[in-house]
Specification:
Layout (H helix, E strand, L loop, with lengths): L10 H11 L2 H7 L6 H20 L1
Amino acid sequence: MARRNKNTMSPALKQEIARELGFADTVQKEGFGAVSARNCGNMVKAAIQIAERNLMR
């Protein structure tokens, strides 16, 4: 299966969601590689919710 080289979320959106979910300090110190799988899933859920809200506008 081929991987996509394009990021789906912008770095600014990732930072904003990490801040909202309370693990921005981990991202700042260690990068997104240190974020738990659970928190990554929570980021995806939050991004989907943001996208759905934007579609409703």
